[in-house]
Write a sequence for this structure.
């Protein structure tokens, strides 16, 4: 049982919508979140879900927290 995220899926969807390639470095610069944090999300290695990071994701991807995180049995 674990909390998982859809971070990589959200990136792919945004890339398709905006017709541009998004690197973690680009996202980091645009939302002011460290690349280390983004890498942890990309590899499903997050142990603490920081509210400020989730808020930045919600604004950047134009979504809610429930669109980012989900519970997997």
């Amino acid at each position: 049982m674990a909390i998982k995220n859809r971070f990589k899926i959200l990136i792919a969807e945004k890339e398709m919508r905006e017709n541009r390639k998004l690197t973690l470095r680009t996202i980091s610069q645009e939302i002011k979140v460290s690349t280390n944090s983004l890498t942890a999300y990309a590899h499903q290695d997050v142990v603490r879900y920081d509210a400020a990071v989730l808020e930045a994701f919600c604004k950047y991807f134009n979504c809610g927290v429930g669109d980012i995180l989900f519970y997997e049995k």
User: Anything to note?
Assistant: The longest strand covers residues 2-5. Helices lie at 7-18, 24-31, 35-42, 51-61, 65-68. The mean pLDDT is 96.
